[in-house]
Amino acid sequence: MAESSQAPLMGRQFTYQQENLLALYQEMEWLSLVINQVICSYLKQEGHENHWLEIPQPPIAPGSSLYADLLIDWELNVFERLALALAMAPSIKPDALDFFFGLNGLIDRPFTEFGGVSDKAFSGFLPTGQTLNFLISANNPEWREHCMAILSHNHRLMAEQVTELMSVDSGLPAWAGVYRMSEHWLHYFVTGEHLRPELSTSFPAHPLDTPMTWDDLVLDYSVMSKLDDIRAWLSHGKTLMQDWQLDKKVKAGYRAVFFGPPGTGKTLTAALLGKSTGREVYRVDLSMVVSKYIGETEKNLSRVFDAASYKDWILFFDEGDALFGKRSEGSSSNDRHANQLTGYLLQKIEDFPGTVIIATNLKSNMDDAFTRRFQSMVQFTMPGVEERLQLWQNAFRGVCDLADDVDLPQIAKDYEVAGGHVINILRQCALNAVRRNERTVYKADLIQSIRQEFQKGNKIIL
User: Which of 89, 179, 317, 437 pairs with 345 at a CA distance of 20 to 30 A?
Assistant: First the structure.
């Protein structure tokens, strides 16, 4: 019965993917005709008086394919549609680009203006930014501006990483880079499944997830009150900005700073804010962002902000004072560059329409110019005795059995620990128990694990 019930579902899924693929192949046929006509007009061959804009575009209708839906929803013009088709051609129908392999009879070599590169592992033609420029403006030089817009990093196709212009070695024209469609968007156009962007130099951030729920968060009442304000904005911000026309009074987006000692719940809270409001949270990897080369840090950050600008994401910067620290009053070139970077980041955050959360251990490390522009400053303090007891109870519940000699209220009273410390202690206690082939944790286990955790911070308990 199970197999027979799954068969119709698999059949529908197969048909769905066939329809999506058919739309892409139709787009490739149109691309082939366009390329042929552009080259024909450029070389003044027979039929050169015709124009590629006269070639009918494949019809699109809402719901006919995922590719059609994107063209309609994003209101892409014919130049942008051509760019998409060119970028996906090597993966869908590489022979659609074979027209570009023609030789210039005068010099017996490929046409420089066609752009493109070849690779040992791929025998086909790989289009570059110059290839797109040729198709758009070879016969209409004034249309170069369309190509410039499409290849700009803030164009939606580039910002959402549908397409990418690969970087080139220093000294080479930027448009000499390979122009391609990202694999995760190509996967989406066929299957309908949106893969999360992977951590890479082109996207230095990774998803921040947690199996915990909002009810698991143990914080002081005053802290929870401020977090409820942030949750309220995440839930009703669009209504306020659009229906209440608050966008005429304030800038879009929401900016918050979480500060306090390590282990007090800053990262967990950021993850839970996303989870409880149905948003993706991306933690920016500062090790991949910060560069010793002038200008590279800004580029790395732009990739994150540009990718997130069209999505309802929360961007989380941990140890944010590494990027958003106080500006120096020095006059050296390094000081000036650091100050310029700080100003650049401030502007990026102010212009970002989504939610940004910056976490730091010390508020005093943050530049005042940043903190003045943040809507919320949330201080995460070390939990009190009642919060610590709840943290201990939540941690061991459903994991380990506590022996009769374990007095959690007394443990909570005697040892000042944060939630992150409690989880580390739980892990060590569980490890000790499983070595004994049991689930029971004794007072000695608990004290030993607390002692080990305190030693990390050079603290000693008797």
Answer: 179
